[in-house]
Structures are given as structure tokens and as C-alpha cells.
Design brief:
heterodimer; A: 404 residues; alpha+beta; 2 domains; four-stranded mixed β-sheet; two-stranded antiparallel ribbon; 12 helices; 8 strands; globular; disordered N terminus; B: 191 residues; mainly alpha; de novo design (two linked rop proteins); disordered C terminus
Chain lengths: 404, 191
């Protein structure tokens, strides 16, 4: 059933194979045109690809987290976030609760990294954390955990390495041909070789221009499909599609760009961190499907939460018979009803959430906190010397107790 | 190079395929059965967590709710009954836990009348824990039922049902909420 969603993905497989063939083609023809040996070009292409893959496999997740300046949080730092992630870990049956990171950035976004389900992390920006209520947070975390569970992180890393290798080869190839001169003519000792060389060089130039673009388009197609799948599994895990839908709507309302985002990791985020306003809806060059469409699909599930309900809503909204969920995942599925919205008694309001998040960020910048008797919260900078601090509000002098 | 060798190769290939199929299906069934067992253990973990939270909750609430003795006692006794029910079978345990859930939700509804308690930091933290534990219980139950469904499908569908029958894989039992109290959540309204 839904565990099969990660295997048996014929269309994704076809796309990945297409990208791989593209890489081999580029390697072969560039090798033929530049050093006069197609096999040599192939070897170089595969070497670059293997090295990059090894690096991405073993270092990829820590690198992404470091670039995003994400900080790991402990359960006591933000019990609600931790609990929500644990709830989704239980619902999805992950073997281990992922590490949770927070990024100090007002732009709302979240992403998941990690090559396998027992070694994964989720990260969320402070801007998103303070905007979402419990149900919405659950929806977002369910989406991220689906990416882990469906092995999208591994797949997308693999694809972005393929794409990266093609781009690097094309770049080097073009530089070498321009400045080093194509020396393909050297080989034309046999009769009629000149003509063949000309064709090879032409094909190489054509590939150099077109391959990176084609690879990019394939990459985007894979990424968009995985986003729909993660939305579908997210709805299934929470049994509450509305949570994710309303979270996506809140995210869509913001136009801030994430400061630390990187083009290569864009598919890992819950929404494209580089989306610009007014972009055409079903753009071929986007890593993510348009948010409005994702929301519409989630809201058209008609009280269901199963993958079949998502499939039906998807076909309805897109107005086509083509589905997004592999048929093998739908076999033997029983209808699953979505749960009703429930009033959570202890739900903190918007202001408290913002306060909670900023308290956390202050704490991470090593600021001390002194609660004055008049009710004022004093933030003590880490570099402040002295043993006491005066409250600017009421004038009381508060002792600074044991600071690290 | 007679026909005999060709026949032999074909027979070997077919045998190889059949054994491979049995092997993979059998392993798949075992994996699913273990997943069901593991999911069941998860429910127990969460139920125990709820039992452990309640004394703490009572301690915090006691000072504020002097006039709600009955509600408080109902929670304590439901918790004790639920603890006794551990190991007495799925049905009895589910019923006792259902009673505990409804006693707790009655208590949380009454809390609305005590603004001082609601503002208490300790209580707020406990309430988050309690809400989350309730969620975790229902999510672990959901995962258990999802696992049972997957496992049952595999044991009943062609062709894996043949292997399941050969090696005696029985279908799993769904976790149904049996307690009447749990099925219809109590409606508490304050005029």
C-alpha cells in the first residue's frame, strides 16, 4: 500500500534514467570533440559524478544545515514543535524521531534532509514557526516527514548531483573548446574523417547548450511530482488535509525570500524559496507546483484523507485523467475519513507564539533573561559586565545571577 | 547438446523463479507481521506515558480546584482502573483507557472556569504534554491499524495469500475503540 509509494515509481525512474543518459551523451561527445576519445570523456564524466555523489551522500545533510545556519533544538526548547514532530514520527512509522532544527529567518519555510529514515533532520524557519497553529504545524511536519519516508531526499540529492555534473561538464567543455581550440581534426587521418569530426563537434556544441537546460527541466518535473506525493502522504498521516492547506495558504501570503536558501536544495523546501511574484502558474521551470493548486487539491478531498481521495481531487483540480499516485500504492486501500477540526484547549495565540519563538532565538544568541518584579523582561547581552542590572521601567536594581 | 540440456535449463530457471518468489514473499510477510507487533508496542508506550502524567497533573490542579472533587476523583480512579487493566486483553484495556480519556476531557473542560489555573506556567506545560499524548495515542493507534491493513491485504491477496496459507500467517486484528465513552465525546457546555 502506501509504503510502496517509494518503490515502483515508473515515471520517476524513466526521468532519472533520461537524466543519466543525458550525462553519458554529454560525456561521450565532449570527450570525442575535445580529446578525440569518447570513452575518455565518459570516464571523466562518471568520475566527476561518483565523487560528487559520495560527497552528497556522506556530507550533504550537514552541509545544507550549515549553509542554512540552522540550529538544533532540544525537546525543552520548544515542547510543542518537538511533540508535533514526534506525533508525525509515530503516524508515519519512522524508526527514529528526526533531529529538529530552527533557522532564524522571518521568511516562512521548512525543509527535510537526511539520506535514510533513521538519519534524518527537519528544519523550520522562525518565521514559519510563529505563524502556524498546532494543526498547521502538524500539516507542515507531516509533509516534511513524508519527504523522508518516501526517500525523496535521497532521490532529489541523486538528481541534483546528476544535474550538477551535466552543468559542470558543459561549462568546462565550452571553455576548453573556446580557448583550447577543438582538436578533433587530429583524428581525421582516415578517409572521410573530416566530415565525421565536423558532425561530432556540432553535436557536442548542441549538447553543451541544450543538455543543462533539458536536465534542469527533467529535474523540475521530478521535484514537482514528489511535492504532490508528499502532500498526499501528509494528509494521510494527519488525517487532516485542512491543516496543511491552511499552512500553505499562510506561507503563500508572504513574499519574503529566504536569505540562506541555495538553488541546489530548492526541492527540499516546503515551498520554492525562490518563487517570485507573478510567475506563471504551471511553470515548467519551477521546483514546486503552484501553491494555490496544492491548496485546492487538499481542499477538494471531500472529507477523505486517503491517497485515493487525493488522487481523485488531483484529477478533478487538474482536469485531466492522469494521476500522480502510482497505482500500486492504491491497491487494497480502504477509504479513510479525515478527522474534524478540534479545539485544542492550550493553543497559544499569535502573540504568545511570536514571543515564544523570539525567546528561543535570544537564548541561542546567549542572551540572559532577567524577570523584573514589575513584569518587565530584561534581555542581558552576553558581553555585559557587572553583577547587577537596573530595570529601565521601574528603577529596581536586579542582581545578575550565575551567567556562563 | 541435446534437448535434455535445454529442458534442464528451463526447469532450473523455473525452479529458481519459484523459490525466489516464495523467499521474497515470505520475508515480506514476516516484515509486515513484525511491523504490526511493533506498532502495537508503540500504543502501550503512549498509554503508559499518559498514566505517568496524571499524578503530576492532579498535584498541580488540586490547589486550584477545591470544588471539583468528583471530577478529580473520577480521573484518579479511571487511571487506577486503566493501570490494572494492563495485560487483561485488548478489549478490556481499550475500554478502561476509553473511560480515562473521557474523565480527562471532562476535567479539561472544567478548567475553563479557573482562569488562575489556566495562566499557571506549570499547568500550561502539562496541558501541552497531555494534548500531545492524546494525539500520540491516536496516531499510534492509526499507525497500528494502517499496518494491520497492509499486512492483512498481503495475507489475503493473490498471489501472496498462497505463501501466507502455506506458512500459517494469520490476519491481524484491528484496534477498534470499544468504550462507549470514547466513541461519543462528552459534550460539556457552560451557559
Amino acid at each position: 500500500m502506501w509504503e510502496q509509494i517509494r518503490s515502483n515509481q515508473t515515471r520517476t525512474l524513466v526521468l532519472v534514467v533520461a537524466m543519466g543518459l543525458l550525462l553519458l551523451l554529454v560525456g561521450y561527445f565532449l570527450g570525442e570533440a575535445i580529446f578525440g576519445s569518447g570513452i575518455g570523456g565518459l570516464v571523466v564524466a562518471i568520475l566527476i559524478w561518483v565523487v560528487m555523489n559520495l560527497f552528497a551522500y556522506f556530507q550533504g545533510d550537514s552541509m545544507i544545515l550549515a549553509i542554512s545556519r540552522a540550529r538544533k533544538i532540544s525537546p525543552d526548547d520548544h515542547p510543542r514543535l518537538y511533540n508535533v514532530v514526534e506525533e508525525m514520527k509515530i503516524a508515519s512509522g519512522l524508526p527514529k524521531i528526526p533531529d529538529i532544527y530552527i533557522i532564524d529567518d522571518p521568511s516562512p519555510n521548512a525543509f527535510a534532509v537526511g539520506r535514510d529514515p533513521s538519519r534524518a533532520s527537519v528544519a523550520i524557519t522562525s518565521g514559519l514557526l510563529e505563524r502556524l497553529n498546532r494543526d498547521e504545524l502538524q500539516g507542515v511536519m507531516a509533509h516534511e516527514i513524508s519527504h523522508i519516508k518516501n526517500r525523496d531526499v535521497l532521490l532529489m540529492t541523486f538528481c541534483s548531483v546528476l544535474l550538477g555534473t551535466i552543468v559542470i561538464l558543459a561549462w568546462f567543455g565550452s571553455r576548453m573548446m573556446l580557448f583550447g581550440g577543438a582538436r578533433g581534426g587530429r583524428r581525421s587521418s582516415g578517409g572521410g574523417g573530416g566530415y565525421a569530426t565536423l558532425i561530432i563537434v556540432a553535436v557536442a556544441i548542441l549538447l553543451m547548450i541544450l543538455a543543462p537546460i533539458a536536465a534542469q527541466l527533467i529535474y523540475y518535473a521530478i521535484s514537482r511530482k514528489r511535492e504532490y506525493l508528499a502532500d498526499a502522504s501528509g494528509a494521510l498521516y494527519t488525517r487532516y488535509p485542512e491543516g496543511l492547506a491552511s499552512a500553505l495558504e499562510k506561507i503563500a501570503g508572504s513574499t519574503q525570500e529566504l536569505k540562506t536558501a541555495n538553488q541546489a536544495f530548492a526541492p527540499m523546501y516546503i515551498i520554492n524559496p525562490f518563487r517570485s511574484k507573478g510567475r506563471a502558474a504551471s511553470d515548467l521551470t519551477s521546483t514546486h507546483p503552484p501553491i494555490s493548486e496544492r491548496v485546492r487539491i487538499l481542499r477538494s478531498m471531500a472529507g477523505g484523507a486517503s491517497l485515493a481521495a487525493y488522487e481523485k481531487a488531483y484529477q478533478e483540480v487538474r482536469g485531466s485523467g492522469r494521476g500522480v499516485i502510482p497505482p500500486s500504492a492504491l491497491v487494497g486501500e480502504t477509504p479513510v475519513a479525515a478527522r474534524k477540526a478540534e479545539a485544542v484547549p492550550a493553543e497559544p495565540g499569535k502573540v504568545e507564539r511570536a514571543r515564544e519563538t523570539s525567546d528561543l532565538l535570544w537564548k541561542y544568541s546567549n542572551y540572559g533573561l532577567v524577570n523584573c518584579e514589575c513584569g518587565t523582561k530584561l534581555r542581558v547581552p552576553p558581553k555585559l559586565r557587572g553583577s547587577s542590572i537596573r530595570c529601565p521601567h521601574c528603577g529596581r536594581v536586579n542582581p545578575l545571577s550565575s551567567r556562563p | 547438446m541435446g534437448i535434455g540440456i535445454i529442458v534442464l535449463i528451463v526447469v532450473l530457471a523455473v525452479l529458481f523463479l519459484v523459490i525466489g518468489f516464495i523467499w521474497m514473499t515470505y520475508n515480506g510477510l514476516v516484515r509486515l507481521r513484525n511491523q504490526v507487533k511493533n506498532a502495537w508496542a508503540q500504543i502501550d508506550v503512549q498509554l503508559k506515558r499518559r498514566h505517568d502524567l496524571i499524578p503530576n497533573l492532579m498535584e498541580t490542579v488540586k490547589g486550584y480546584m477545591k470544588h471539583e472533587r468528583e471530577t478529580l476523583e473520577a480521573v484518579t480512579s479511571a487511571r487506577n482502573l486503566a493501570q490494572k487493566a494492563i495485560g487483561t486483553g485488548v478489549g478490556a484495556q481499550a475500554k478502561a483507557e476509553g473511560e480515562l480519556s473521557s474523565a480527562l476531557s471532562r476535567l479539561l473542560a472544567v478548567v475553563e472556569n479557573y482562569p488562575d489555573l489556566k495562566a499557571n506556567q506549570n499547568f500550561m506545560a502539562l496541558q501541552e504534554e497531555l494534548t500531545s499524548t492524546e494525539n500520540k495515542i491516536s496516531f499510534s493507534r492509526q499507525y497500528y491499524n494502517d499496518s494491520v491493513l497492509t499486512y492483512n491485504n498481503k495475507t489475503q491477496m493473490v498471489p501472496s495469500n498462497i505463501i501466507a496459507g502455506m506458512f500459517g500467517f494469520k490476519t491481524g486484528e484491528f484496534f477498534e475503540v470499544t468504550a462507549a465513552a470514547e466513541r461519543e465525546a462528552p459534550k460539556v457546555s457552560f451557559g
